[in-house]
Design a protein that fits this description.
Elements: E1 19-27, E2 33-41, E3 48-53, H1 68-75, E4 79-83, H2 97-113, E5 117-127, H3 129-140, E6 147-151, H4 157-161, H5 168-173, H6 180-189, E7 203-209, H7 217-230, E8 236-241, H8 252-284
Parallel strand pairs: 3-4, 3-5, 5-6, 6-7, 7-8
Antiparallel strand pairs: 1-2, 2-4
């Protein structure tokens, strides 16, 4: 397949030729082909640590695009992938939130099975409804991720859907809790129900926005409490950003601070695990 460059912009302080992109395909549990967009450094051996992003809601396509935070990850030798799960604009037809969870899991498993991603260094990054997706996936497979950053996650799904006057479009998007099938699907998905996770849970960075009316601060704090009670040993960093709504800070400097906190969380977590692995190797020798 030939690629034609229509426009290009020079990026200072880095050589983009050090990185390359590719599109992969994973087969979900029902056989549906799920696309994966991957960008990775060329000069690092496989398998590599990887940050995974997905959204899967409201028909929004999670388009790959240039991003300075992603470039920072690549400079540190960390690959970045988008798993194009159902629910976004990438896959059409009927679907459910639990199928999106299965799509995400199978996409990650494909990257691991191909030897591209190190199974012990998988980092998740989800915002808003994407945060709900990663929280639900961590509930189902708590050992899949090393760490997850959840930014304004829509975690208390039931609480929001049961509010008086909830639009029918929201019920169609999520779950109809008035039906038996809807309640069954929700029970499987519910990020707040952590009774089955055991003692294993990924490290968490939870970021909430003070003025957020879609994922209110009390919802973020409620999820923090649920994780803390279910897995007392879990490592959780909770941050509330003042004077910001659901889309994050309007001030560019404050927006950069949020991105820096997420990058620091991933990179410090990775360095800590690499240091521990080296120490273990030294002890075993």
């Amino acid at each position: 397949m030939r690629t034609r460059v229509l426009a290009a912009e020079r990026i200072l302080f880095t050589d983009l030729k050090r990185f390359h992109t590719r599109r992969l395909t994973a087969s979900s549990t029902d056989g549906l082909a799920i696309s994966i967009s991957l960008v990775e450094p060329k000069d690092r051996p496989y398998p590599r640590p990887c940050v995974i992003m997905a959204y899967g809601a409201y028909g929004v396509t999670c388009e790959p695009e240039f991003s300075v935070p992603i470039l920072c990850l690549l400079e540190q030798g960390i690959s970045f992938a988008i798993v194009h799960v159902r629910g976004g604009g990438e896959v059409f037809g009927r679907w459910s939130k639990n199928q999106a969870v299965e799509d995400l899991v199978r996409g990650i498993q494909e990257l691991v099975s191909l030897g591209i991603v190190d199974s012990t260094m998988i980092f998740g990054w989800g915002s808003s409804a994407g945060g709900s997706l990663f929280a639900a996936t961590a509930k189902r497979q708590p050992g899949l991720f090393t760490a997850i950053a959840l930014v304004a996650p829509f975690s208390d799904v039931a609480g929001e859907l049961m509010k008086p006057g909830t639009p029918s479009s929201e019920i169609q998007e999520w779950f109809d809790l008035e039906t038996d099938s809807g309640r069954q699907q929700f029970t499987l998905y519910n990020p707040m129900d952590l009774a089955s996770v055991g003692d294993t849970f990924p490290d968490l960075l939870l970021i909430g926005y003070e003025l957020d009316d879609r994922a209110p601060v009390e919802q973020i704090v409620g999820y923090y409490d649920r994780v803390r009670n279910a897995v007392p040993a879990a490592r959780i960093d909770l941050r509330i950003v003042p004077e910001a709504g659901h889309s994050g800070p309007s001030d560019p400097f404050e927006k950069t601070r949020v991105s820096a906190a997420i990058l620091s969380f991933f990179i410090c977590n990775l360095e800590s695990r690499l240091s521990l692995a080296q120490k273990n190797l030294g002890l075993s020798s």
